[in-house]
From TrEMBL:
Annotated source species: Streptomyces racemochromogenes
Lineage: Bacteria, Bacillati, Actinomycetota, Actinomycetes, Kitasatosporales
Transmembrane segments: none
Keyword vocabulary terms for this entry: Isomerase
Protein name as annotated: Tautomerase family protein
Domain 4-oxalocrotonate tautomerase-like positions: 2-52
Domain of life: Bacteria
Amino acid sequence: MPHIHIRHYPREFTAEQLRAVDEAVTAAVTKTFATGEDTVSISLEPIRPEDWEEQVLSEMAARRELLVKRPGYWKES
C-alpha cells in the first residue's frame, strides 16, 4: 500500500496538472513496487517557503537514511 506524500511551495494546480502528477507518480510506483493502481495513494501538502527549513529540511536531516534522492540545494553540515 504505497502512499506518496509530496510537500511543495504553495501554488495553484490545474486539473490537468494534478492528473499528470497522479498518472506519472502512480505509473512509477506501481512498476517499482509491483502493485496495482488501486493500492497507491498520493497527497500534496503546501509548505510556505519560510517554513521549509523547519518543517522539511530538518526532517530530511533527521531521517537522511530514508532519502532516495537529495535535493541539489541542500548542503549537509
